[in-house]
């Protein structure tokens, strides 16, 4: 499974021999033909959400995932968004009843 962009997911169902490594599954999936920019890069891989490397031995029923690298650190992005909106425009403090204090 690979997501080339937000809200886009590509999946391939393949059969590999018992004891196959993640690298073989990637090669036989055709992902490098569909997305040539991935070829030669060190890919971030996972199996069912757990990080693995290309030498990981796959088990029957495993879902191999290829992750995109983050463009922005999520915590930093959240901090910046909070700073732009201000303390009264985000989160718990956004819905203040008339005459009430912020946060109550």
Short description:
This protein is an alpha+beta fold. It is 23% helix and 11% strand. It contains 3 helices and 3 strands; from the N terminus they run ααβββα.
Written overview of the protein:
- With 104 residues, this protein is an alpha+beta fold.
- The radius of gyration is 21 Å and the shape is elongated.
- A three-stranded antiparallel β-sheet has the order 2-1-3, covered by helices on one side.
- The mean pLDDT is 83.
- The N and C termini lie far apart (44 Å).
- It has a domain at 1-70: Beta-grasp domain (Ubiquitin-like (UB roll), Roll), CATH 3.10.20.
- The protein has helices spanning 22-29, 31-34, 74-85; strands at 44-47, 50-52, 64-67.
- A hairpin with a 2-residue loop joins strand 1 and strand 2 (50-52).
- It is 23% helix and 11% strand.
- The protein contains three helices and three strands, in the order H-H-E-E-E-H.
Q: Give the N-terminus to C-terminus distance in angstroms.
A: 44 Å
Low-confidence stretches: none
How many beta-strand segments? 3
Secondary-structure element series? HHEEEH
CATH architecture of the domain at 1-70: Roll
- Coarse shape: elongated
Provide the β-strand percentage band: 5-15%
Global Rg: 21 Å
Which class best fits the helix and strand makeup? Answer: alpha+beta
CATH superfamily of the domain at 1-70: Beta-grasp domain
